Amino acid sequence: MNIEVLKSKIHMVTVTDANLHYVGSITIDEDLMDAANLIENEKVQVLNLNNGERLDTYVIKGKRGSGEIVMNGPAARKVTVGDVVIIISYAMMDFEEAKHFRPVIVFPDTATNKL
Known about the structure:
Layout: E1 2-14, E2 17-19, E3 25-29, H1 30-36, E4 43-48, E5 54-62, E6 69-72, E7 84-94, H2 95-100, E8 104-106
Parallel strand pairs: 1-8, 2-6, 3-5
Antiparallel strand pairs: 1-7, 3-6, 4-5, 4-7
């Protein structure tokens, strides 16, 4: 039996920009991606602490060290610059494997979005 479990989590980062007229996705500083074990094009769930919105999108690699968290496309309507969000990815794995799996969770500084 396979189950879906938490794989990666960036806990509480601040949205630095929103670009409605982009194809879609979330741009994340590459340093944060590496720390959270996320890759470009990976599906993520974004939880907005300011308004309760939850949405699914995919990751675009942002400039390393920039601290940028940019909501692109229609998702830009679900956030305001300055909102604090949690970014989560999940993985499917065997039930027994999941019992021993440990997700990667990072806690950046919400003022700078840096570790």
